[in-house]
Amino acid sequence: MENDQARPMPRIGDKAPAFKAATTQGEIDFPKQYEGSWVIFFSHPADFTPVCTSEFMTFATLEPKFAELGCKLVGLSVDGLYSHIAWLRTIKEKIEYKGMKDVEVKFPLIEDITMEVAKSYGMIQPGEAATKAVRAVFVIDPKGMIRAIIYYPLSMGRNFDELLRVVQALKTADAFSIATPADWRPGDEVIVPTAGSCGVAKSRMDGKEEGVTCKDWFFCTKKIDKEKVLSTIVKK
Description:
By secondary structure, the protein is of the alpha+beta class. It has 2 domains: 4-158, 3-Layer(aba) Sandwich (Glutaredoxin); 177-233, Antioxidant, Horf6, Chain A, domain 2. 30% of the residues lie in helices and 22% in strands. It is built from 6 helices and 10 strands. The protein has helices at residues 50-68, 81-94, 116-120, 160-176, 198-205, 226-233; strands at 19-23, 26-30, 38-43, 71-77, 109-111, 135-140, 146-152, 189-192, 212-216, 219-223. Strands 5-4-3-6-7 form a 5-stranded mixed β-sheet, covered by helices on one side. A hairpin with a 2-residue loop joins strand 1 and strand 2 (26-30). The relative contact order is 0.15. The mean pLDDT is 90.
């Protein structure tokens, strides 16, 4: 058997590791069946735990917002399928949190009792727990490439505004060939890539490139209207 300690963790820019597994929504062939869509593939430590419950209620409540961005959700823990089903039923029938109640989780939750999928994605962090997946998030693009990776410890719930922002920022960067600065939100100024020639750089610095403002040769920004950004990245 492959040494888990020697198994390389997937990195940004890698192809998402492929697998087939049972889920609460039937069999899954990942990432093949999600080609053409963005995906947030995430793990949680265990069913019937409070932090995970708060996260799943939030994910399920925000699922329409992710869907507007053409982004699907796929969850995983090392629990079995019957545990998943019982937990999600309990969430819907008994749990109320921050005004959320009767929450039905409709996205697939993967059974991974062998921990094979979790290990292939580096979701098992021995220093944190040898038998539980940490709160990992992989943002995967329509070509099946990993574009962002975020890890949280067992004790810390995720920031869901940030997860939405990550997808928005990646789609905006792809669509407009720009970069997004710190704390960027749709409608904020974006970063224009560094000029590829001296002539272009001088034109920018002289204020001759329409819509572009430069503080120095390496730091140039421009405004893209919020409506233009959203009309481009939101799924029609």
